[in-house]
Amino acid sequence: MFKYFLKDKELSIAEILIAVIFCSIPLFATFPYKINLYLAWDGAYRMYLGQLPFRDFGMPLGYGFWIIPGLFFKIFGPFMSSLIKAQVFINALSIVAFSSILRTFKVAPPIRVLGVIFFCLSYVFINFWPWYNHTVFVYELIGLAFLISGILKRDKYALYKLIAAGFFIFLSVFTKQDIGGLGLIIALTLLIINNVIDREFRSTLIFLASFIFFAIIIISPLLSYEFTYWFNYGQAPHSSRIAIFDYMDDAFKESSLILRLYITGIIISLLIKISQGGIKALIEDRVQLNFSLFILALLIQPLLAQVTTYIPANAHYYYHSFVFVFILSQIRHLEVRKSWVFGSLLLLIFFLWSHDYWRYGKRIMERTLGIKQEVDYNYVTKRTWIIKDKEEKTDRSDWKRTPFKSLDNVYLPEATIKGIKRLKEQWAGKADLKVLNMSELTQLAYELGYTPLSGEDQPLWFHRNVAFFDRESQNTCLQIADEQFDLIFFETIPKLNRFYPPEVRDCIQDHYELDDTFPAPRIPEDSYIEVYVRKK
């Protein structure tokens, strides 16, 4: 057993099974409602109804993120379970792109399989729901997979690969500008370095032509609407979010130490190669050169992107698996095909990425074994040396599965479920219901049967100074004063910086009366959805 060597066929089967298992896990689970899900659902639902981005609703991003969720809504219906299915598909695409890149870099099959396991544990497993901070990198990864294959393989399909790379890198930019823009820089850097070595720039020109072509055919129809107002490229009323000290703070803070260590390690490996064989030897080994540059680029990207893409904290964890594979690939005398070596490395991966499953495993152990960590302030320990706030925190364990079709496979606070039931009893099925929904429960459009507000001046969501500006605030207040809405939902979130504009709430309270209040699906549970109706 310990002398057994793993065969390529066995490893290929294992790779497929691992991908299928990790991608399928969300299909068999029910999850608590998560922040920002309202946005994924709302954009996809509007497209399901036939509304078009920028014609019927504006947003500071392109619509790349909503393409796959919108398609899955068309196929399976406008339900939360459809979003889960969409994310399963997105996760599968990310694994295929990851594996493809490693194949192009000629990574040995057993190391590639270990890399896929690490990628699934660190990046796939934590993404149950679609979110643009994740989708943007998946599009980028697909684009870079095509690009690297086009650069290094130079087969008869190289032209088509470069064209596909241009499309997916544009789609990445049109999903989220910051990460997509960095992906474009990475692609151009790899192309130009290889073109300088080869003394020809045909591949760079093909890629750029493809990128520009798809940008023109996708953006030009939108210019007849307010695209240049909504799409954020740093113009007023938007903000660029770029501040040099923010970048320096994030680059040099303690939490970025692991990134700096990784970058240092890659640079040291390059210096070793140069010292042993010189620059010429490094350049001649084109696969290894591009592998090193690619990993270095993927490490610099999150070091910069965490300034503008700061939630969730694990949005950039894709780089760990790439670095792990790179390190193993540099160790020439480690026979990873040996079953005991492969098994040892597998255990090491689970040790390295133990924090996720320990968090859940600890809860299971506490429940099954009856273990509870008491906090006694008569003693000084790690848990008691400082007096913490006495506010109640929840792990969502008291949330209930909802009975609502659009919110299937989701847990909500019981009081929230009761609030939605009251709304349905009073308002569901009423004809021509006009609703201003400034809350995270965008699914109320389906449950109550109203059509979301539309128009090229209508924002997709109401985040103050992100997607909802002074113009929108003034227009909304005028509509409220004119009592154009039958029903208004407004969510108060004390811990966020005026997420929903307080001035609009003032307008609502001047012209409408509060009819109901129930908790919003948030942690901590101090946010509420207020229901307003016309004054009697």
UniProtKB/TrEMBL annotation:
It comes from the Bacteria. Keywords: Membrane, Transmembrane, Transmembrane helix. The keyword Membrane applies. The chain crosses the membrane at residues 12-33, 57-76, 88-105, 111-129, 136-152, 158-174, 179-197, 203-223, 257-275, 287-305, 340-358. The keyword DNA-binding does not apply. This is Glycosyltransferase RgtA/B/C/D-like domain-containing protein.
